[in-house]
């Protein structure tokens, strides 16, 4: 069972916490982690690339010149691919790049990602994260106290003071325990969790 330090908002160590091996101490499955990242990036693709084939380009209904006797190759339409203004031969069309991952695979990938953060000492636990008002400067001060620049801050509840205060800080993102994903956990240098968020994650993913 991993034992990590608990810090307060001033950056001082105020205790320790035991993390559940069922979530933060599993065998890291790199294949599932990679699959989860690829799936999320694929799901985010718009897939809206489009070009017109010769059947979709306007005009070109009339045969440009007679079949024989002109010395040119026979042509049926000026919208064939070899003409300027013609259609594209194998034109790209809108498509869906997303693919499915089983629920068990997703959960296993998330546990592997969290475990890797613990093993690399890139997971910080706070006793609490509360701000009196929406003020970016106050949130930045907390991050400075913890020597953080690029961090994913995971909360157990939608605290608007924290969320809005962190919104304009470059390299910082907030997320709720029910919206975390493998890509964000690995993308940011450090994962910051409140003690309440740790309990919530262990309850859901253990």
What report would you give on this structure?
The protein has helices at residues 21-24, 30-44, 103-119, 136-145, 160-166, 182-187, 195-205; strands spanning 2-7, 13-19, 123-126, 151-155, 172-176, 190-194. The chain is built from seven helices and six strands. The model has no long low-confidence stretch (mean pLDDT 92). The protein has two domains: 2-45 and 99-205, Ribosomal protein L4/L1 (Ribosomal Protein L4, Chain: A, 3-Layer(aba) Sandwich); 47-96, no CATH class. With 206 residues, it is of the alpha/beta class. 23% of the residues are buried.
* Share in helix: 25-40%
Within CATH, the superfamily of the largest domain carries the name Ribosomal protein L4/L1
Mean pLDDT: 92
Which structural class should the secondary elements be placed in? alpha/beta
Assembly of the depicted chains: single chain
Radius of gyration: 27 Å
| Portion in strands | 15-25%
Strand order of the largest sheet: 2-1-3-6-4-5
CATH top level label of the largest domain: Alpha Beta
Query: What is the domain total for the residues?
Result: 2
Please report the number of helical segments. 7
Let me know the number of strands. 6
- Element-level helix/strand string: EEHHHEHEHEHEH
Question: Separation of termini?
Answer: 13 Å
């Amino acid at each position: 069972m991993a034992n990590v330090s608990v810090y307060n908002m001033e950056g001082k160590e105020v205790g320790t916490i035991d993390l559940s091996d069922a979530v933060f101490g599993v065998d890291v499955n790199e294949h599932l982690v990679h699959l989860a990242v690829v799936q999320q990036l694929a799901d985010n693709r718009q897939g809206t690339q489009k070009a017109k084939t010769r059947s979709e380009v306007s005009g070109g209904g009339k045969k440009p010149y007679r079949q024989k006797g002109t010395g040119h190759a026979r042509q049926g339409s000026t919208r064939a691919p070899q003409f300027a203004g013609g259609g594209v031969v194998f034109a790209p069309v809108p498509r869906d790049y997303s693919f499915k991952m089983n629920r068990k695979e997703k959960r296993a990938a998330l546990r592997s990602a969290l475990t890797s953060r613990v093993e690399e000492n890139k997971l910080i636990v706070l006793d609490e994260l509360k701000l009196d008002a929406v003020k970016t400067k106050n949130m930045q001060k907390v991050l400075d106290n913890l020597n953080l620049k690029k961090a994913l801050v995971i909360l157990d509840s939608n605290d608007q003071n924290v969320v809005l205060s962190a919104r304009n800080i470059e390299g910082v993102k907030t997320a709720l325990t029910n919206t975390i994903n493998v890509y964000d956990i690995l993308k940011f240098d450090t994962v910051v969790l409140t003690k309440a968020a740790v309990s919530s994650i262990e309850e859901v993913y253990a």
